[in-house]
# Entry
Amino acid sequence: MMASGYSAKEEDGHLPGASGAAGSGVAKSKKPDNTAFKQQRLPAWQPILTAGTVLPAFFVIGLIFIPIGIGLYVTSNNIKEFEIDYTGADMSSPCFNCSQSSSWNSTWPCRCSIAFTLDQPFESNVFMYYGLSNFYQNHRRYVKSRDDSQLNGDKSSLKNPSKECEPYRTSDNKPIAPCGAIANSLFNDTLELFYIDPNGTRTQIPLMKKGIAWWTDKHVKFRNPGGTNLNLSTVFQGTAKPVNWHKSVYELDADLENNGFINEDFIVWMRTAALPTFRKLYRIIQKKSNMTPTLPRGNYTLDITYNYPVLSFEGRKRMILSTISWMGGKNPFLGLAYITVGSVCFFLGVVLLIIHHKYGNRNNSADIPN
Amino acid sequence: MARESGEAGALKSCEVRKRTKRKSKKESKSRIVCSNVAYERARGAEEPHKHYANNKIKTTKYTLLSFLPKNLFEQFHRFANVYFVFIALLNFVPVVNAFQPVLALAPVIFILSVTAIKDLWEDYRRHRSDKEINHMDCLVYCKSQRRYVEKYWKQVCVGDFVRLRCNEILPADVLLLSSSDPDGLCHIETATLDGESNLKQRQVVRRFLDLDCEFDPTKYDSVIECERPNNDLGRFRGYIIHRNGKRDGLNKENLLLRGCTIRNTEEAVGIVIYAGHETKSMLNNNGPRYKRSKLERQMNIDVFWCVIILLVMCLFSAIGHGLWVFQYGETRPVFDVLGPEGTDLSPALSAVYLFLTMIIVFQVLIPISLFVSIEIVKICQVYIIHQDVELYDEETDSHLQCRALNITEDLGQMQYIFSDKTGTLTENKMVFRRCAVVGIEYSHDANARRLAMYQELDSEEEDCLSQGGTLPRRDSASSHQSARVVLRSQSTKSHRRTGSRAEAKRASILSKHTAFSSPMEKDVTPDPQLLDKVNDCASQMEFMRLHAQPLTQLPSELSDIIDFFVALAICNTVVVSSPDQPRQKVRMRFELKSPVKTIEDFIKRFTPSRLTSGSNSSSSSSLATRSSAPRAGSSLLSSPSAEGTLLKLEEENSPGPLEGSFRAVPAHSVSEEAELRYEAESPDEAALVYAARAYKCALVGRLPDQVTVELPHLGKLTFELLHTLGFDSTRKRMSVVVRHPLTDEITVYTKGADSVIMDLLRPPTSDDTKGKRQRKTLYKTQNYLNLYAANGLRTLCIAKKVLSKEDYAAWLKSHLAGETAIQGREELLFESALRLETDLQLLGATGIEDRLQDGVPEAIASLRKAGLQIWVLTGDKQETAINIAYACKLLDPEEEIITLNADSQEACAVLLEESLHYIRSKFLCDAPEQASRALQDDPSSLPVLVHRLGLVIDGRTLAYALDSSLEDRFLAVARSCRSVLCCRSTPLQKSMVVKLVRNKLKVMTLAIGDGANDVSMIQVADVGVGISGQEGMQAVMASDFALPRFQYLQKLLLVHGHWCYSRLANMILYFFYKNAMFVALIFWYQFYCGFSGSAMIDQWFLIFFNLMFSAFPQLITGTLDKDVSAETLQDRPQLYMSGQNSEEYKPYMFWMNMIDAFYQSLVCFFIPYFAYSDSDADLFSWGTPITSLALLTILLHLGIETKTWTWLNWASIAFSVALFLAIALFYNASCPSCYPPSNPYWTIQRQLANPLFYLLCLITPVAALLPRYFYRACQGTLFPGPVQVGRQLDRLPPEARRSASGQTKVTGGHHFAPRPPLYHIPGFFCNHGAEGYKKREAPTDSAREGAGLSAGITAGGGWGPDAPRGGLPPEVDTLLHSQGEASDGRLYANAAVGPSGFSLADRATPPPPFTQHECVPLTPSATCVQRAPGGEGLGLPPSTATRPEGGAVTSTADSLETTLL
# Structure
């Protein structure tokens, strides 16, 4: 430190190597390079935020946002959506009895049906959702309570699920498959939709149960153990079903492509919702032909196999029918937001214009205090 | 430890003691050193000094093994690190964990390792420098080879003999045992230790001095006992015990300290006493200190607030969670998962657990990367400051060094500057400017031109100059030049000495062979008129000598001139060395003879009997040599007037000394071409000697007993040196008593401050012509002195006195009595000196310029405009300090000056009280006017208005004022003064002043200095700046920043300081904003997840968001953003005030940023919330867009705050977005079953395919940033701060900007507008205004002077209307005067002295200046002098000019008593 100070200054050749090796006697100047970067003279854009300079931006934003907003709003309004609450919290509701009696332990399914009327026909593909309210699927411990490698078909995880699944990890000393609280609380109501002809006949509307989950989930993330082994019951041998389930995981569907871990209802459920009020895709009603609407105007009944108790936590269950657009389901908010923000921008632009007109032209250079 | 007297064998005792020492190592108070050589011969077994440190130094902190634990330990000293580690460890507790434990450790480990790598690198650099030093060579005596061999420094041990050659650096603390110097002296330069570049003498231990032959280490068998290693550079105590048991005391004069350089001594041998880390220099080296900047302190408060916000948020969440759990009662919903053990948690307990969990989740609020980012940014800033080419000094090839890496932003917040004077404001190069001899001024125009030339050369390219082609050459000296060049390059290996000053200066600094000897200082161009007179006089003297005429026939004017130059040449302590024998003083053939030591000696020397008896004494032998010389003719030269006395004393031998002087020319040592080099203790002395040499009155040799001077025509004259009464600060003068070889009179030459010398002059005896002439001379000289002082020159008076032998004998008797006295020796000697120095005859006066460094006045002016208070703390005397203060525009001519000189505590208290009263009454009475002026001029928000006052205080008074009872009052006075000048202050006082101001006023202080005496002040101040130019490294070592020149301080503070501050302030605010905004997103989410601590943002994003995604743009902005361009910042120093007032980062801004952050996070949360409400979006499909648009918002926010967009900014923002996308895409595609719990497989991919994502990314940032953007726009138009105006100025085209800045300069100018001067000679100023304009002044200043002058005509000859007296409130005025009457009659005159921008000195014969006095003695012991702000009041009223005789009487009377301020 100190010595380095003088050793650097001394030039009388007592430094080993340093001056001797250089030899030439051309002292290397310590002068810094005169480059733009080192002298902080890089070419630069220096915007100054004043009313005058900023004001076009506000107008431009306003002019862009308002049309977008209108477009979004119109799009959203074109989406048809029908929603019916079948919780049965109300005495008047047909499902009142079921809602009162249902619990996780009840083995006997309770059935109820609700009639409703569609005022408008649903033209294109209709998506059928079940909606839950007040259901905190995003609870921290709930979200964690799963074993992804078990769901991915890992055999060791099947037999020895992750600790995260506690307390739904084992049952009767047998590993639970699928383990964890999410799987345990699988939504297990069955919804069926019937169209009542004007002449009174009930026609069941065919509901597609495939294609409701993400493709990647179905084909990559979720896999049954044993791969292509079609005999799921042997694969899942030695595992227990989740405590709240009425049947084992390999009994979820008859269709082998939709059974076990790759059952799409199960996959959809396993994708935990972001907010306590959510909907999950249940079925898809496909458009039959170009001529007839998917769901014509008229009366319908929703037949419910009521298994899922929600009243204990003030939850609500809904069935939603909705068409979708390029921007998803019906949601007027975004359009309104765009219109609002655009208008505010425009308004502020006008304010800035006034400010600029009134104050912008004075010469500020004399304002620096001396 | 008891010391046994070592009769038998010192070595043995050495061993014995060694053993005892080992036993009782702790108790031993001393260290014993004996020779390694002798020791091995005697025993050969055990190393005697193995308990002493060897010379290997190790300044590194770590070794390879200890690095990790030690570094971690040090890092955990920072509280934040402990906190983050704690949080990371908390994650390992299953009940509360939020993230994957390992992942949570990642950021902490990242931060720790970045810091560790930085530390490792720094340590490696230290290691390398250590290695370099350890491997320097030196000659150590080798036992086996019986000669000195080259060894590395690290191999040197205590007890080794080292041989040191000229210009070598001492490897350890060495006791000097032998020197090639016949006097046993060794010169060292201690610049690296204490910063003093003059040479110091060290003496060989006395007994070894008497050795006849060369020192032989094998014969050395003494033992040294000395004190244990300590860090006191100025002390060394011990003794050496010789074999025969005799002891010699050792003191610091015998010790050569490590790091010093041997100069002017061919060879020296010494024994190592302390080595390595035990050397005094290493013990003094405390390493870098950790300073915490103001900004960082402020930031820490806000970090603390963040902690509180965090706790509030956690508490809120915990309570919320408790309630949420509670509302379900006994029935547990399916989604409320039981604990891992299946236990049901009570609401309260789960709330407690959740509290801890939330701390983990919200940890981002305490910005973990803030500290490390700040460090990175500061290092980048330091790098960029280093690279500034404008802070590079070509002459010394040095640039700014930032030694403290963590306080760059403090540079932008300085409020007080404490500056040293000599070497800091000035170059510490004394240049002879002009002189007045016997009342006639020789203005040395050519010399001034030469100096001006140097100044111009500075700016010119070197190759513009052919070898000295454009240099003004002394016709007489040019012959020396070529020879000198050759000699120089031989002796110093440096490049040629002539040519540009830059190169010469560099060479001089590099070689440092002779202090104070740059060509600028050496080459004085003589005034032709004076040179003629000297030649004339000398030739006349020669003629007279040849014709045996007595010298009294010489016109007294001429003889005085010769005397004047002789005095200049010999009245000093300059040592002469010649370059062809560079390491040896010039030796005359006379043997060493000390000054008169005893009465016997005196009698011997001054009586004829010495000749007969002188066969064995050295003195007589020398005289015997003389006596052998031919006597013919020389006796004729002796002055008849002295003859009577002379004959009595030296009947037959009067020609002796004369003759001796003629032969005193050893042909081998001083040839005509050889240039002599002068080693002076002070630069003034060197300047005077060089000046004398320019008049061919060259000092060619100095021995303890004689001085040899070469005179034109007369050849070399040897003056027998009888006494030297050294300079001391109380007497303020020095004298030499010599025997004049021509007249053989005993002559006293005195040189000293004009104020003292003028008092000691022999009063004019009669009214005859002689007395008249004398008075006239006196009067004129006084006027010239005033003129010199007014020009900022350091003035000295030269006087002489001829003593009769009887008088001398009488004086000598008492003096010797004083010298031998045991008690009160100092006082006796002091009195004896006083007795000698009376009744002097004035010879003349000199003006020496301590040249200001280039650009100092401009730098001070602009720093002051920047709102900085500048205090100058100097060890110099008051007069000089004030002159320099004027010259560098620290004091303004029309400023009133309060001078505080008190002799006692009470007096000081009274003084302060009165000054305070005066200030109050003066500035509060005419409050409206003052207030309006202040509003116009000085809008600084300082609570106390700074008045246009200067305060001058001397060291003694300062000591009283710094007393705890007075310090508040002192501060009250001082802070209302615009400039404060503390003279004669000790280093300790300097630091006390800084400490006082810093602690009491709570301001940011900067201390700047260059020497060792500034070290304490530099260390105390918030920012210490060392000047790394002339003087040593001590100040630089202690400093935080080292500058090559003072003027660079301007750019360092105004530009880099401002930038660093504003960058860092903005970055810190942004950091807080960023983290708060990000964390708040999660907080809002808690309302929708049952306060369960869930996060919709993937934990990876959460943890790396700060560290990676948003880190780079802010680093770029923090490093490179420029709010205002460098040119504008320098044009408008006022912009600096934004940093002083912490305008970029005020406490409320933190909260504004927090509120903005919360608003923005609300927008960023709720727009996606509503957009996705009641949809089938899953947790992370919803969280990923939020992360993305939060990132966009944060980056765009930075965009709004970024003032300068270079491609780096664009690139960094693009990079950040790209990095986020790339990592997200990769992360979300890498593993379908990993990263529990989020398992975000294919999430971002799906989002990118969703138009909603883009719609959100468009609207959310716009909505979030709308208020800020709008606010910024309004602010820019409606109420722009100065900085914003500065930015707008930047946009103007250069010409418009110039005109705009010109405008403000003028409006700012009336701040400094001068008051009308008192007197005025129109022609005088008209002639010289233009010159002054060119030379020094800013154009506006000069113009204002002109305006002021014309106003001065109307002011007439009386008191100026604006003179302070006029401004004095009556009661104060009378108070002062009544006290004055009660005083002891001491008259404190007050000269109106202005710095007068243009050089009066350039005028050949200016009219004698008239000094205006205002005498305001306050109390017997204290004076408070208001200096009349004379402006250019040096001009003489025409009436006075025409009758100088009349004015002379009063004026002289006054000036006699004048204490020139």
About this structure: The CA atoms of residues 178 and 242 of chain A lie 7 Å apart.
